[in-house]
Amino acid sequence: xxxxxxxxxxxxxxxxxxxxxxxxxxxxxxxxxxxxxxxxxxxxxxxxxxxxxxxxxxxxxxxxxxxxxxxxxxxxxxxxxxxxxxxxxxxxxxxxxxxxxxxxxxxxxxxxxxxxxxxxxxxxxxxxxxxxxxxxxxxxxxxxxxxxxxxxxxxxxxxxxxxxxxxxxxxxxxxxxxxxxxxxxxxxxxxxxxxxxxxxxxxxxxxxxxxxxxxxxxxxxxxxxxxxxxxxxxxxxxxxxxxxxxxxxxxxxxxxxxxxxxxxxxxxxxxxxxxxxxxxxxxxxxxxxxxxxxxxxxxxxxxxxxxxxxxxxxxxxxxxxxxxxxxxxxxxxxxxxxxxxxxxxxxxxxxxxxxxxxxxxxxxxxxxxxxxxxxxxxxxxxxxxxxxxxxxxxxxxxxxxxxxxxxxxxxxxxxxxxxxxxxxxxxxxxxx
Length: 432
What we know:
By secondary structure, this protein is α/β, with parallel strands linked by helices. 30% of the residues lie in helices and 24% in strands. It has one domain (6-421): 3-Layer(bba) Sandwich (FAD/NAD(P)-binding domain), CATH 3.50.50.
């Protein structure tokens, strides 16, 4: 890219899977599209996700869209002509206490109501699915059509496929802000020049709010930090993605096991910043109902956030501050490693090969923010709100339909950006 002005039909800000899929499906519709990414494609959360493609445990309003996402995943490898390591091995949640069983039963009712294939299993059936796994399980919830894939491989495959169709990708190019004329978006201002466009898709993950707030567009978001560990290759154990009370795991084709926190107990860290106080009223109920799932940290992130807001140089606004680098929680890694050895005594000597962490954005109702804003015209939000990896492909296709054809095949009304200001939000308790 040169510093001279450029023009396109749609500008997509963000190099994650949602932005990648949106750009690809726009290019398939012969729309000129340019993606702007401050780092490299898949360099943020889309390259750091666990890789679960699951429908169980989602909020009821998200299940219909997630069901379509599940169908779409099966054909992605052929469509993108890439090895994305997608395995439709199913997803299994397991319960070891009466409270855990109640959660699985709640998730099962929601899945069945949405028409998904989900089955409650007995303890014996759980043991039959994974004979090597120990544990005093009372029940399981099995979704045989779910699966898992390699996040970075999928994200970069979408980017390559979009390029083949004529889409441009500007890496190491920071979007500094959006320009508006006569109430409509007219350009993306970047640190490498101006991109003129009448349509912008803001898909910048945790940075999205900072990009659009100067235009008066408000998005209630909270950012949590999630840590993941990968083991050295182990013998084949299961093709299932497993969601336990303490440990969630999946096994790649090369034998590596990805380990993350389970559905019970603290599963992520929230580092207190100035943004923690913004839109606090929207999150009070969610905090009350889910406080056991979150470790709140007070530390240097708050000081970094103060310095971040005091800077007047917009070129540094999106490259520094509390979300510039995700620190791994050693406590979280020790916890999942300990649980792995409890459940699989034969793997007691299996070493952790690497660890990483990423930032996930959450909304008060745990649903994505998808669709156009009322003002300025031409601005579409695509904040996946913890659903980014699983939903990314179907979100990209739906947004491309909406931008090009004026409407999506799927109802995006539950995810509209305006919902936070229209009245009480539905109850949002994490089921799994």
